[in-house]
Design brief:
With 398 residues, the protein is an alpha+beta fold. It folds into three domains: 6-92, Integrase, DNA-binding domain (Double Stranded RNA Binding Domain); 104-210, DNA polymerase, domain 1 (Orthogonal Bundle), CATH 1.10.150; 221-394, hpI Integrase, Chain A, CATH 1.10.443. Helix content is 49%, strand content 10%. It contains 17 helices and seven strands. It has helices spanning 6-11, 59-74, 79-101, 104-115, 122-140, 150-161, 165-184, 207-210, 224-232, 237-248, 252-256, 289-296, 321-328, 338-350, 355-361, 369-374, 380-394; strands spanning 16-21, 24-28, 34-42, 45-53, 263-264, 269-272, 283-286. The strands form two sheets. Strands 1-2-3-4 form a four-stranded antiparallel beta sheet, covered by helices on one side. Strands 5-6-7 form a three-stranded antiparallel beta sheet. Strand 5 (263-264) and strand 6 form a beta hairpin. Helix 10 runs antiparallel to helix 12 and helix 10 (237-248) crosses helix 13 (321-328). The chain starts with 5 loop residues before the first helix and ends with a helix.
Length: 398
């Protein structure tokens, strides 16, 4: 029989610790808070375990809980350790229930939305969505992340591994990142079935051995003066954008996203910020006189920051606008990106400019990390001379 009674417990207000017997204590704090504690000793160590607050836990319930804990002690089981184990098991059960209720498709959509702001353009997010919709969701979209296996990955990848090697590689990588994020959230355990090194590389042939490199269709550099002559006659804005793309050897997205604030016509330089560059580094583009004249001839629309504004307010021309312009010229054999290859072939075959100057003009990422670490300049003046020569050649003035 305990020392305390229900009425006493209810009316105790003076702060202190009141013994009920066999290690059960009733604690009253100066703040008025009241709670139950079981004091016990195991393997020579004295410990205390909370049994709940009063009045949520009554005297009778506290004695019952204390009895259960003492029964564990007779078996050499630490009640605190058992409580921690039960809490962990309950947490795992809750996580497992959550994991089973969240599908891969839901996780992928959340991943895309979370990372969208960190991607360089909206097109990247759209590519993520399109590849997963087309190749991943039909096989694993409705599966919880924890249930996706290596066999599922092979079902996704085998049909496209040889015929669409680049796409297959991107799909694999994107699934891997989504599953890594799921593991970080406790929604799956174990190895990632989409991992390549040491896993899928043992089951699928290396991409390099099955991939047929497809180059962007490029205009032979010897034909550039004649092509440019026809292109300059076209006054549509998308054709103007193609001309600037050719004269600067820049990427499509870099030209279409160009703003008036980036261009300094007085010093004949265009500074593309790091956020818009593939390499994530600011790129200075020397503007030859033809490029400067083209930019001066563009209309600066009120409310638009872009050199090549789109039909929608606050937007630039679409990513397909220049390709459509080529089609209107009946040049379906060409792509806009291919003009970078045309420039590179001209520089290699018709000039004596060093490879480093040509590669810098294209803003290519240096593959040799050691070389990149020591190479800090951008060869701007040498590139200016080269791009002046390129403009003269492309426009047929030399």
């Amino acid at each position: 029989m305990g020392k305390l009674n229900p009425a006493q417990v209810k009316n105790l207000v003076e702060s202190g610790t009141y013994e009920d017997g066999q290690g059960l204590r009733f604690v009253v704090k100066a703040s008025g808070k009241k709670y139950w504690v079981l004091r016990y000793q195991l393997e020579g160590k004295r410990r205390e375990m909370g049994l709940g607050a009063f009045p949520l836990v009554s005297l009778k319930e506290a004695r019952g809980a204390a009895y259960e804990k003492r029964q564990l002690l007779t078996k050499g089981i630490d009640p605190l350790a058992r409580r921690d184990e039960e809490a962990l098991a309950k947490k795992r059960e809750t996580q497992q229930k959550l994991a089973r209720s969240v599908t891969f498709k839901t996780l992928a959509l959340e991943y895309i939305e979370t990372h969208r702001a960190g991607w360089k353009n909206a097109k990247h997010g759209q590519q993520w969505e399109n590849t997963l919709i087309t190749y991943a969701y039909p096989f694993i979209g409705d599966f919880p992340a924890e249930e996706i296996t290596t066999e599922h990955m092979l079902q996704v990848l085998r049909p496209i591994w040889e015929s669409k090697a680049e796409t297959a590689s991107r799909v694999r990588n994107r699934i891997e990142m989504v599953l890594d994020a799921a593991k970080a959230r406790g929604l799956r355990e174990g190895e990632n079935p989409a991992r390549w090194r040491g896993h899928l590389d043992k089951l699928l042939p290396p991409r390099g051995k099955v991939q047929t490199v497809v180059h962007h269709p490029a205009l032979p550099w010897a034909q550039m003066p004649e092509f440019m002559k026809m292109l300059i006659l076209r006054e549509e804005l998308s054709s103007r954008a193609i001309v600037l793309t050719i004269l600067t050897a820049c990427r499509t997205s870099e030209v279409l996203g160009a703003t008036w604030a980036e261009v300094d016509l007085k010093n004949k330089v265009w500074k593309i910020p790091a956020a818009r560059m593939k390499a994530g580094k600011e790129h200075r583009v020397p503007l030859n006189e033809v490029a400067c004249e083209l930019i001066r001839g563009l209309k600066q629309l009120a409310g638009s920051a872009y050199l090549f504004p789109g039909a929608k307010s606050g937007s630039h021309l679409s990513n397909t606008s220049m390709l459509m312009a080529l089609r209107r010229m009946n040049r379906t054999d060409l792509t806009v990106h291919g003009f970078r290859s045309t420039f590179r072939d001209w520089a290699a075959e018709s000039t004596h400019y060093p490879r480093e100057v040509c590669e810098q003009a294209l803003a290519h990422i240096r593959q040799d990390k050691a070389e990149a670490a020591y190479f800090r300049g951008d060869l701007f003046e040498k590139r200016r001379a080269m791009m002046d020569e390129w403009a003269q050649y492309a426009c047929g003035t030399r």
